[in-house]
Design a protein that fits this description.
Blueprint: E1 2-7, E2 10-20, E3 24-25, E4 27-28, H1 29-35, E5 46-51, E6 56-58, E7 66-67, E8 77-81, E9 86-88, E10 116-117, E11 127-131, E12 135-137, E13 154-160, E14 166-174, E15 214-216, E16 234-235, E17 241-244, E18 248-250
Parallel strand pairs: 2-5, 3-6, 4-7, 5-8, 6-9, 7-10, 8-11, 9-12, 10-16, 11-17, 12-18
Antiparallel strand pairs: 1-2, 13-14, 13-15
Length: about 250
């Protein structure tokens, strides 16, 4: 709602107040403001966003939990987060571990998203996040997938007759596939931690006790996937944004 003040007997709109009173995801402040009558192309009204006590604002894949949208550059913006409320970016997914014996690299862990993202182009307003909630945290990165083990190598079979004559031929004798690599660890949810890398898969081996020619070449194991990177608690988008309050910020505020 718009909050008026009285100057010289006339009512003047001073701020548009947006109250978030229930759990929700992917908050877009511009969308909420527009629904309340704000016009970003012409309106320089200040906006105050109040996240009520105990409310949890979360994110879905690829999105920040809360974003400003392209508000008017001259509109001041204050985001107030009340006691016990949380704002959490999306946590990246665990990277994939390919099937054994393929020697393929593990998949990279997904990146976490920002808790609060400012998207105001060339903003000239005053911007502030007051976090008196439990925490504002960027999403954590997912762990990288383990590398697949390499394929087993093979040699032809050594056969000897009763006269001591030996020769190499079919069938092939195989060694072992390389061991699967281990997946890296995901960062703790809403704590803006990078995921750890997965480990490489083991190399395939040849059969022991056999000096016959190689029939199938053993392959190396795949590399472990990289861990995903964490999102920011507050991504200022190049603006000057004041962050304050008694609550914890997990992740960068830059």
């Amino acid at each position: 709602m718009f909050m008026p003040i009285v100057q010289g007997g006339q009512s003047v709109v001073s701020a548009l107040t947006l109250d978030i009173t229930s759990n929700t995801s992917d908050v877009n402040i511009l969308t909420l403001a527009t629904a309340a009558g704000y016009n970003a192309s012409t309106d320089t009204t200040a906006i105050i966003v109040n996240v009520a006590s105990g409310v949890a604002i979360t994110a879905t894949s690829g999105n920040p939990a809360m974003r400003t949208g392209a508000l008017n550059a001259a509109s001041n913006l204050t985001i107030n987060i009340a006691s016990s409320a949380t704002v959490c970016g999306f946590d990246g997914a665990q990277g994939s571990t390919p099937a054994q014996s393929t020697g393929n690299a593990g998949g990279a862990g997904g990146n976490g998203t920002d808790a609060i993202l400012f998207e105001i182009t060339s903003g000239t307003g005053t911007y502030e996040v007051v976090n008196d909630g439990t925490h504002v945290g960027g999403g954590s990165g997912g762990g990288g997938g383990g590398g697949a083990g390499g394929h087993a190598g093979a040699r032809t079979t050594l056969s000897c007759d009763d006269k001591g004559g030996c020769s190499c031929g079919h069938p092939n004798q195989y060694g072992s596939h390389g061991a699967q690599g281990s997946a890296g660890s995901n960062g703790a949810s809403c704590r803006a931690q990078n995921g750890s890398a997965g480990t490489a898969g083991g190399n395939g081996s040849y059969p022991g006790g056999n000096s016959c020619p190689i029939a199938v070449t053993a392959t190396n194991g795949g590399a472990g996937g990289a861990g995903g990177t964490a999102g920011k608690a507050v991504n200022k988008g190049g603006l000057t944004v004041t962050t304050s309050g008694s609550g914890t910020y997990y992740g960068a505020t830059s």
